[in-house]
Amino acid sequence: MLSSSNPIENKKMGSLCQACSSSFQATPLSLAKSVFSLASSSPFIFTKGHKINRYYSTFRASTSGSSASTSVCLDSKEVRSTDLVDLEYAELNLKYKISEEVGHVRIRQHVNPLSSSFSTPAAVPAWDEVYKDPSLPLMVDIGSGSGRFLLWLAKKNAESGNYLGLEIRQKLVKRANFWVNELGLSNAHFIFANAMVSFDQLISSYPGPLEFVSILCPDPHFKKRHHKRRVVQKPLVDSILQNLKPGGKIFVQSDVLDVAQDMRDQLDEEAKVLDHVDTVDAEGGWLSENPMGIRTEREIHAELEGARIYRRLYQKKNILID
Predict the structure, then answer these.
(1) Sign of the C-alpha dihedral, residues 246, 231, 102, 60?
(2) How much is the pLDDT for 121?
(3) What are the protein's GO molecular function terms (predicted)?
(4) Widest CA span of the chain, in angstroms?
């Protein structure tokens, strides 16, 4: 049952219920998109630059000819970013797919990659055991977090590419690989690794071409004396460029302007090797939209708080690096 003191909002909520209940080919993803599409125009939902309370009564939508139903709204509570993450990644249906072995994953938000405990290079896997076809183009997500972003891409492009997540928090890697198995993906894998130490050794051994590298909302390490802990440093940039195929791309983003500028400045220094992809807005040379087709979890959290996401996309020139 819908509840709002505003008749306009009631009408919008009614439209949302109607859209969900009348969808003959309803899927969790389509329902989620309906929520975002209709909700985005509501002042009760989100206004850029402001965090606003949002309230819904619970409703469920059933697919035609099936007893299956999908919850797409909340029990009269303020919408949280975690709820929006569930909606964004509804197609994966991962929420309850946690093994007893992995359990509930609680992690530190930030770790020191310069610690001695992260100084040992990760072992190179047997690529033909990790991927069904290790000759396919590879995308590497440095700092893959929970892995949902990479899993969504891997599922969408199951036959055309392989996806590798490098993550410094081991519990996240363990859970992400559990999800890979649950989803039956043969083109996704996650490795517990410090990219600053392990990137070159891992990627240079991969049989296929490195086509895409993403570094999305990395740990900001705000204090100046801790900037050396930031993942985008000259040695890693050199390693990425050495392994990236001509025409391959690097995508970086952050909701922290200082971090985004730092990554931009380091990559802009490689102008002899990299072209900046020129799809930008008029302010600061940042990409106006996310080109990946799905937002990362951090992106969702930040945008809910009204933060801007600073994005930059580069493409390697068709030249050889000595």
Answers:
(1) negative
(2) 85
(3) tRNA (guanine(46)-N7)-methyltransferase activity
(4) 67
Q: Is the dihedral of CA 316, 290, 212, 216 positive or negative?
A: positive
- The beta strand positions in 174-254, using DSSP E, are 188-192, 210-216, 244-254
List beta partners, residue 313: 251
- How far apart are the C-alpha atoms of 282 and 159, rounded to whole Å? 37
Is the confidence at residue 218, as pLDDT, over 50?
yes
Q: How far apart are CA 75 and CA 161, in angstroms?
A: 39
Give, for 85, the enclosing helix (H) or strand (E).
Answer: helix 81-88
Helix (H, G, I), strand (E, B) or coil at 228: helix
| Residue given tokens 């040695």 in the structure block | 235
Kindly tell me if the per-residue pLDDT of 59 is higher than 50. no
Tokens of 265: 């400045």
The set of catalytic residues is 219
Residue with tokens 């992400």: 176
CB 138 within 8 A of CB 208: yes
CB count in 10 Å sphere of residue 72: 24
Q: Report pTM.
A: 0.74
d(CA 56, CA 28): 18
